[in-house]
Hints:
There is one protein chain. The chain has one helix at 2-17; strands at 41-45, 48-50, 53-56, 61-66, 75-76, 91-95, 101-106, 114-119. It is α/β, with parallel strands linked by helices. It has a domain at 38-120: Sandwich (Immunoglobulin-like). The N and C termini lie far apart (41 Å). The structure holds copper (II) ion.
Amino acid sequence: xxxxxxxxxxxxxxxxxxxxxxxxxxxxxxxxxxxxxxxxxxxxxxxxxxxxxxxxxxxxxxxxxxxxxxxxxxxxxxxxxxxxxxxxxxxxxxxxxxxxxxxxxxxxxxxxxxxxxxxx
Length: 120
Ligand SMILES: [Cu+2]
């Protein structure tokens, strides 16, 4: 079981930007079917968005994964996107605006949680 947790954390580490621990990368057999192109993913962990700034193309789908034991949202300050409430361990999705620009967002439940989606 702890091994499962370790693997999950390792995967998250890769998503969050390839730092860290090294070790067992690659070569797991099966399951995860990778879509073509890098996935656009924002992870919510410890009441923070990771990465804090994400750049995507116009209209991109962005998956938002909530790893916290609390519900969160990812809501554009200008309301151009909003995941709605994401329960603990669940995920939501937003569609990036079609217009290029910087879109600050926050969590409606915890307004100190902020990040920026850059569309270009
Ligand atoms: Cu929150």
